[in-house]
Amino acid sequence: RILNSSYNRTIDSAPFEVLFGVKMRDDTDLRLQEIIEQEFQSQFEEERNQIRTKAKEQIFKVQAENCKTYNLRLKKAQKYKVGEVVAIKRTQLGAGQKLRAKYLGPYRIEKAKFNDTYDVVKIGDHEGPIRTSTCVEYMKPWNNVSYK
Q: How far apart are CA 108 and CA 87, in angstroms?
């Protein structure tokens, strides 16, 4: 079987092919085909893994650059101490609020929490919540000395 299916240089094809006009199907050919397919599959997976690894490295590189440029523009949060007097930004807007003050206050800092957030308590009689929690980006120091 192997001799009939192997290439012959004299007749420029396999003897089985000359005799019957078609290529011989043999178990060895199927095994050879399976080996070739496995090799092709492993090569394809290896190339795909290389492409994915390269893409992952590029993503990490771009993320590091973006983080670096973002941190250059980032302003450090101001730290407040318990007992300081601050004003808090009005966060609930609605109709007729255009001409009202953008900040409410004064408020005294009651407790410092994590991630630059604070619990504040209203001082005096003015508009705004009696007790609330707010972050540094919505606070500013109170300028009036009479409330201390």
A: 9
Q: Note the pTM of the prediction, 2 decimals.
A: 0.54
- List the structure tokens of 71: 């941190």
DSSP letters, 101-140, are -SEEEEEEEEEE-STTEEEEEE-SS-SS-SEEEEEGGGEE
Q: Is residue 148 very low, low, confident or very high in pLDDT (cuts 50, 70, 90)?
A: very low
**DSSP secondary-structure letter at 6?**
S
Residue indicated by tokens 């001799």 = 3
Place of tokens 């109170």: 142
Residue type, 20: F
Domain boundaries, the chain: 1-26+37-74, 84-141
Tell me how many helices (H) and strands (E) the chain has.
3, 5
Distance CA(69)–CA(144), nearest Å, equals 38
**What average pLDDT does the segment 64-88 reach?**
92
Q: Which CATH architecture has domain 84-141?
A: Roll (2.30)
The span from the CA of 102 to the CA of 99, in Å, is: 9
